[in-house]
Amino acid sequence: MSDVRRERASLAGVVFAVLFAQVLLYPGATDLVAAFDASDPETASRWFLAAEFGAFVAFAGVWGALSDRAGRRVPFIAMGAVAGGVGYGALAAANVRLAGALVLRAAQGAVTIGAFSLAMTMLMDLSDDHGKNMGAAGIAIGLGTALGAPVGGELTEIAPRLPLVVGGAVLALAGVFALRVPDRAPEGHGDSLRAGLRVLSNRPSLSVPYAFGFIDRFTAGFFALVGTLYFRQEFGLDAGATGLTLALFFAPFALLQYPFGRLSDRIGRTIPIAVGSATYGLAVVGVGFAPALGLAQGGMVVVGVLGALMAPATMALVTDIAGDDERGVGMAGFNAAGSLGFLAGIVGGGWVAESWGFESAFLLAGGTELLLAALALPALLRLD
């Protein structure tokens, strides 16, 4: 295996670890917050998941700017991953009520995003095959979520806090192994943190992949919470079966990212993003209106395939636009936009499902995808 391929696999392993640890908690989120004495577990699970993503949004740019300024990635990746693992362990061991758990969750998210975003940035540094590199990141994201969902469901049935223990151990180990990866970051620019963050305003074209990143992660956040509640309540699935059903989305989403990423290197970013976004929202709505479990599960597979078509092309577009010494901030902005989308999917989708039912919630998710994609598409075509 060549050095670049080995480094690509190692960095993808860090991305995998972050997502695997994260998604372990999703199938049993209501059981977990009940262990923290939440009076309304369904609502509390929404805020527990949202606390991490709020921290992602707040701190992604900070990690990216620090990395670009220092001209180093590896120490920050290792620090973020190990500290994130400690945060998971603290949540597992702490004898606190829900408010204390939310504080710990936010602190864990603030450090974990450093490992996640900068590992993806180092994949940007590897070579000019941006679609291939982002396809590796995408397959790691998809595999982490695909495996995290069913494993987390089974662990939850043993003990509600067990996914925290396993997730923390996996993340900390990934941080230690990251130290073996050579640092390919460009030379640091020496600008202040504030000047580094201004890169985002100096490159307005980045708003195009950011918009599509927001849209895609919105539906991912929606499925993380509302999808879990939907399959458990409407079809009577337990945590383990719910995890396996969520994996029907995440498995094709993972396995197809690398080939679709390479495809975008050959044919450009516009076609995969445009075609995927035009049909993705309809597939999401179809899952919510499926009259039988089998049809809903088939819809999850379709959603996963379309998501895999869009995701690596969207991430590669960030790499195409950002300058060499701006990649940390550029990818941080993308992840912040995605985290905002995920947060909106969790909070907004959960609120609509709770207030007006699952059909209205799925209409919101799919309709939002279609609307925002239609608004962003002209800018994508101009960029191409």
TrEMBL record:
This is MFS transporter. The keyword Transmembrane applies. Keywords: Membrane, Transmembrane, Transmembrane helix. Pfam families: MFS_1. It comes from the Archaea. CDD domains: MFS_MdtG_SLC18_like. PANTHER family: TRANSPORTER MFS SUPERFAMILY. It comes from Halobacterium litoreum. Residues 205-384 form the Major facilitator superfamily (MFS) profile domain. Gene3D superfamilies: MFS general substrate transporter like domains. The chain crosses the membrane at residues 9-27, 47-67, 74-96, 102-123, 135-152, 158-179, 208-231, 237-258, 270-293, 299-319, 331-352, 358-381.
